[in-house]
Amino acid sequence: MAIVSRGFTGKRRGNESRTPPGQYLTQDFPVLSAGPTPQVNTDRWEFSIVTEMGEKHHWSWQEMRALPTDKPTVDIHCVTTWSKLDTRWRGVPLDTLLDGIDTAATHVMAHGYDGYTTNLPLDELRHGKAWLAYEYDGKPLHPEHGGPARLLVPNLYFWKSAKWVSKLTLLVRDEPGFWEQNGYHDYGDPWQEQRYQGD
Ligand SMILES: Nc1nc2c(c(=O)[nH]1)N[C@H]1C(S)=C(S)[C@@H](COP(=O)(O)O)O[C@H]1N2
Ligand SMILES: [Mo]
Predict the structure, then answer these.
(1) Nearest residue CA, atom 23 of ligand 1?
(2) Residues 184, 193: Cα–Cα separation, whole Å
(3) pTM, to two decimals
(4) Distance CA 92, CA 96 (A)
(5) What is the pLDDT of residues 57-83, one digit of tens each?
(6) Residue 120 CA to ligand 2 centre (angstroms)
(7) Which one of the ligands is nearest to 116 CA?
(8) How far is the CA of 168 from the centre of ligand 2 (A)?
(9) Using CA atoms, how far apart are residues 33 and 57, in angstroms rounded to an integer?
(10) N or C end of the chain, less CB within 10 A?
(11) What count of Cα atoms within 13 Å lies in the side-chain half-sphere of residue 78?
């Protein structure tokens, strides 16, 4: 027979159980970039989603900022083994951006203004699990952390959260991005410890 204590189930999980295997908790916010920080001006900023049929949906900075936002507080996990709990963001849910786009895609390639690419399962961008984030801790997202706007997909290792994101291309089959071509995992679930290809 199951014994359920109301007080216990109502509590936030402890830090221990919020730390995926092989990760340690950090209080600071390390910067990890493959190259220099690109200067992305919001006057010329554009975000686009291109379907497998080549249909392009795009938003200017003003158009994106006019969309309804969420303020998610989430835990983030970097494959270099740091995790950070309760990070506070503001952004547009990917559900809103994908809404009404006709696609049979299963995967996505995210592109950054720095030329970075990373592949993700499309399902991980839906159902309230991903954002186009432009504020961190109540302030405009710092350029080093991907400002003016980055992808935020906290359920996957943080290399999937493309900084300075410019475009998502919708794919009918999975293709490896930058780190994935260099041996990192195509899915990247920190709870399954999917760090490298074959994990
Ligand atoms: N465009 C772009 N996005 C990127 C990267 C990058 O080099 N370029 N690095 C990735 C990696 S490996 C990680 S761990 C996180 C780091 O984000 P942070 O610098 O805000 O901590 O961004 C990811 N997104
Ligand atoms: Mo990373």
Answers:
(1) 159
(2) 11
(3) 0.94
(4) 7
(5) 999 999 999 999 999 999 999 999 999
(6) 15
(7) 1
(8) 19
(9) 27
(10) N
(11) 15
Residue pLDDT, tens place only, 127-179: 999 999 999 999 999 999 999 999 999 999 999 999 999 999 999 999 999 99
Pick from 37, 119, 159, 182 the residue to mutate for probing ligand 1's pocket: most ligand atoms within 8 Å of its CB: 159
**What SS3 state is found at 125?**
helix
Protein residues whose CB sits closer than 6 Å to any atom of ligand 1: 30-34, 78, 112, 114, 116, 145-146, 158-159, 161-164
Ligand 1 atom with minimal separation from the 34 CA: 7
Nearest atom within ligand 1 for CA of residue 164: 1
Give which of 57, 58, 86, 54 is closest to 72, Cα–Cα: 86
CA distances to 42, 66, 189 from 61, in Å: 6, 9, 31
Measured from the Cα of 116, ligand 1's closest atom is 1
CA of 110 to the centre of ligand 1 (A): 12
Considering only CA atoms, which of 27, 188, 49, 163 is closest in space to residue 109? 49
Secondary structure of 146-184 as H, E, C letters: CCCCEEECCCCCHHHCCCCEEEEEEECCCCCCHHHHCCE
The bridge status of strand 165-171 relative to strand 131-136 is unpaired
